[in-house]
Structure formats: C-alpha cells, structure tokens
Specification:
It is a single chain. The protein has a 10-stranded parallel β-sheet. A two-stranded parallel ribbon has the order 10-12. The protein is built from 15 helices and 12 strands. It is of the alpha/beta class. It folds into 2 domains: 171 residues, Leucine-rich repeat, LRR (right-handed beta-alpha superhelix), CATH 3.80.10; 144 residues, Ribonuclease Inhibitor (Leucine-rich repeat, LRR (right-handed beta-alpha superhelix), Alpha-Beta Horseshoe), CATH 3.80.10.10. The longest helix has 16 residues. InterPro entries: LRR_dom_sf. This is F-box only protein 33.
C-alpha cells in the first residue's frame, strides 16, 4: 500500500517453542520445500518496494521472513526518510546479519533503531556518528546467548565508538535486554560511555553476578531509570544472593547511586528484607515501580528471632513508609508487570521506548 506509514510485525515464537525448540527441522516439517517461506519473503519485499511514505519499519522474530537482502527493496528516497527501524531475529542461520553498516548509510534520518547486539558493530556506530546522520535518540539492543554463540562479540563497538556516537547524538538513550548472557560477556559489553537508560536481565540457564550490578550502578548512575532482574533457573539450593560475601548489597548501591531510578523489578534472586527497606528509603516516591516476588524475599535470623514483631508485616509497613504509598510483595510471578515471554516483552518495551522521543 503506497500510503503505508507504519509496518510493525511480531512473530510470537513462544507458540512454536511449545512444540519444542525452533529449528530448521521443525520449519522443514511445516514447509518442506521452503516454498511458503519464499512466497512470504517475496510479498514482504514487494510491500517494501511499493512503499512511498513508510516512516516506521519494525520486524521482530518473524522467523526467516526478513532476509539480509530485504532492505535493498526499499527505494533510496524512502530509506533516506525512515525514522524508525527494528530488525530482530536471533534464529538466522550462521552468522548472517539482517543489515550491514553499508546498508545503514542510506538511513540518514533514523531517530530510533533496534537490533540484535551482535549485529550492532563498531562500523555501524561510526555510520550513525557521522555528521550527515540526524541525531539518534533511541537504541534498543537484544543480547542473546544464541547470537553470541553463533556470531561473536569481536565486532562490537568499543568505548571510543560510543563516545563518538554520543557526541553526534547528545540525547541518545539505550535499552538493553540480556537473555541468558554470561556475566563475563556482560562485563565486556557494558562500555562506560553507553548512555544506558534501561536494562533487563532474563535467565533460564545462567545468573547475573553482583559484579555486573555493581558495574552498572557505577557507570550509568546519571542515566539508569529501569532495572529488571528475572531468573527462572530451577535450582533447589535456593536463589542466588547478589550480596554474598560483600559489605554492601549491589541492589542497595544501585538505588543509592542511580538517582533517576524509577522502576526496579526482581524475581529469582534473594532480596533481604532489610535491603528492600533501604532501597525504598533511598529512592522514596521517585521509585514509581518496586516489584519483588514474595518467594524472592528473605529475612535474616535477627528479624525472625524478634517475637514482638511480625517480620512480614514490618517489611510491608517500612517499605510503604519509605515509598510514601501502600506496597506489598508480588504474590505470584505471573502478576509481575514484566512477566511475559522475553522476546515479546522486549518487542513491546522497545516499541514504547522508541515512540517516547
């Protein structure tokens, strides 16, 4: 349609994952000769080729619909005036990417961009930092264990690339979601000059370390507003404790240092009751959302030993006083505002983050 201005497509891969892992074998059963997928790819490229007013193009997890050649269907005038682009698919075979730095050079008017982190290279950062490109306002990056395994982190932007990018885009803010990424990799990824506003960790296999949380609180204290920590690792020995063998709890330090923090959500990590009270007092009413699942909260022996005080009632009372509003723990993980299939959550958050320029 020639008057189409917004094209947003999201493939709900959680439905497919219920049949087992998404693989070429599964897709081979559905479309044995690959004809269906080729037809859909062709239709998608026709839509792009016929577009005359497209400003917003967003494709998330549309399994193999977008190919490395799809964007070449867009005419130069449309690519030159596009304001938002998101291309996300962590099931691309091999190390192929959906967009290259050379292709990105045509998109001189982009205000917001969303990519797989392994596709966002130092060369891309240089293209976006060029003076002929309008300032970028929003950058959303999905760091996925699968992508790191198939691609690598070798081409990612270094700190000087981020510095150059923020010189051209002074109002740039970054949203990162890390899915099952090892702490060692996160320590490599989190360069000091990233203007990181939101970060979300989601895990089924690996934990986030206290060192990563500590680094975030020290490097992004001027920017960070959203911090989400989700862990669904089935470990009968209990939840990991970020404050283990540390004088100060990393989440308390995060609340102390990051004065713009407005959302903190935790599930699957031990949050000590006295630390939760400290977080509420430090950030007060500026912390608009404080969500911690009941099963994540623990009490030290001193709190449990006091016969005159009900520790749960005291926690609710003290956190409510600190925040200046009624508060209670989240009773069921499914009631968490951030609880959803991770790619769906990222896509939804990326859309609202990108629209909020």
């Amino acid at each position: 349609h020639r008057n189409l201005q917004t094209l947003s497509l999201f493939g709900d891969i959680s439905i497919l994952q219920q049949h087992g892992s998404i693989s070429n074998t599964y897709l081979g059963k559905v479309d044995p000769d690959g004809k269906k997928i080729k037809q859909i790819q062709q239709l998608f490229e026709e839509i792009l080729g016929n577009s005359r007013q497209l400003k917003w193009l967003s494709c998330g997890f549309m399994l193999q619909i977008v190919t490395p050649t799809s964007l070449s269907s867009l005419s130069n005038p449309i690519a030159n005036t596009m304001e938002h682009l998101s291309l996300l698919d962590n099931h691309i075979p091999g190390n192929a990417t959906l967009i290259t730095a050379v292709e990105l050079e045509r998109f001189v008017n982009l205000r917001s961009l969303a990519l797989d982190f392994c596709d966002f290279t130092a060369e891309m950062a240089r293209v976006l930092a060029d003076s002929n490109h309008v300032p970028l306002h929003r950058l959303s990056l999905l760091v996925h264990r699968v992508s790191i395994m198939h691609k690598s982190l070798d081409s990612m932007p270094e700190d000087e690339n981020w510095k150059a990018l923020t010189r051209n885009s002074a109002n740039l803010r970054v949203y990162i979601m890390a899915f099952d990424v090892k702490s060692d990799d996160m320590l490599r990824i989190l360069k000091p000059s990233i203007p990181l506003e939101r970060i979300h960790f989601d895990s089924y296999i690996t934990y986030v370390s206290g060192a990563v949380v500590d680094l975030i609180s020290r490097q992004y204290d001027k920017f960070l507003t959203h911090f989400i920590l989700m862990n669904d690792v089935i470990d009968m020995s209990g939840f990991p404790d970020l404050s283990d063998n540390r004088n100060e709890d990393p989440l308390v330090l995060l609340a102390w240092r990051c004065t713009r923090l407005s959302l903190l959500a935790v599930h699957g990590y031990t949050v000590w009751a006295h630390n939760l009270i400290a977080i509420a007092r430090l950030r007060g009413s500026d912390l608009k959302v404080l969500e911690v699942t009941e099963e994540s909260i623990d009490f030290d022996q001193g709190e449990l030993a006091d016969q005159d005080v009900d520790p749960v009632h005291n926690l609710i009372e003290q956190v409510s006083l600190g925040l200046g509003r009624p508060w209670h723990a989240v009773m069921d993980i499914e009631l968490l505002s951030v609880f959803t299939e991770p790619t769906r959550h990222f896509y939804r958050e990326m859309q609202s983050f990108s629209e909020g320029i």
